[in-house]
Amino acid sequence: MTSLVAVSDLSLSKNGDALLKGVSLTVRAGEKVALVGPNGAGKSSLIKVLAGLSRSYIGSATLNGRQIASIAPKEISRLVSLVQQRLEFVPSFTVGEFLELHDISVEDVADASLRGLEDRYLPDLSGGELQRVVLAGAVAQRSKLLLMDEPTAHLDPTGRMEVERVVRRYHEEQEISYILVTHDIELALRCAERVVIMRGGQILWDGPASDSMLISKLSDGYGCPFFSVQHPKTGEMVIIPG
C-alpha cells in the first residue's frame, strides 16, 4: 500500500511554545489510525498541519507526495476532510439544506438513519445526530483522508456508538483513510488497526492495536496505569485506566 501521508521531522511552534517536536509518521492508503495521548500532547496540532490549517511548520509534511504547505486551501478541502469536536457555529440550516451544500441528499449518504431528518434544523439535533450529519458532509467530499479530532467528545454513550457505527460503515464502503484523535481508548481499539501515542509534542509509540506492548505504552503516555480486563458480557479483553 502506498503512503498517503508522510510526515518527517516535523516541528511546529506558536508564540515561542513548541507544539510539535520532530514528529515522523506515515499513513497508507485505506489505513485506520488512532491518535491518542494526554491533553497538550500535540494531537490537534498535528491534525491542523495535515488539514492545511497550520502552514508554518518546519520539516516535511506531504499528502500524495506534495508538501501540504504548498497546496492551495481550496484544493486541500477536496483532498482532506476534517471533523472536529463540534461546529464552532451551527447554522440554522435543515439537514437537507446542509447536505445539499455538499452536493448530496439524505438518500445518497451511507447512514440510512439520517433519512427522515431532512426537515430538522441542525441546532435542534442531538449531539450524536449532528456529528453524523457532519460526518456525512465530510465524506461526501470524496476526499482521500478523513481527519477526526475527538468527534465523540461531549456525546453520551448512544451518540458515541452512532458515530462509531457510521465511521466503520464509511470506511468499509469507501475505503477512506482516516486518523481518529480520541481519549476513548476502547473507541480507538474498535475503530483503528494502528495506535499512535503522543506525549509532549512527540510520538512516544506507534504500533498495531493488537500489540502486547500497547498497555505499558499507554501507561507511559498518560502517566497512569492501564489494565486489560475481561468484559463480563462479551468475554473480550478491554483496556481501562486504573
Structure, described:
This protein is of the alpha/beta class and 242 residues long. The chain has a single domain, classed as P-loop containing nucleotide triphosphate hydrolases (Rossmann fold, 3-Layer(aba) Sandwich). It has helices spanning 43-50, 73-79, 95-100, 127-139, 157-174, 185-191, 214-222, and strands spanning 3-14, 17-28, 32-36, 58-63, 66-67, 80-83, 145-149, 177-181, 194-199, 202-208, 226-230, 237-241. The strands form three sheets. A six-stranded mixed sheet has the order 6-7-8-3-9-10, with helices on both faces. Strands 2-1-4-5 form a four-stranded antiparallel sheet, with helices on one face. The longest helix has 18 residues, at 157-174. The protein is globular and about 50 Å long.
Structure in a nutshell:
The protein is α/β, with parallel strands linked by helices and about 240 residues long.
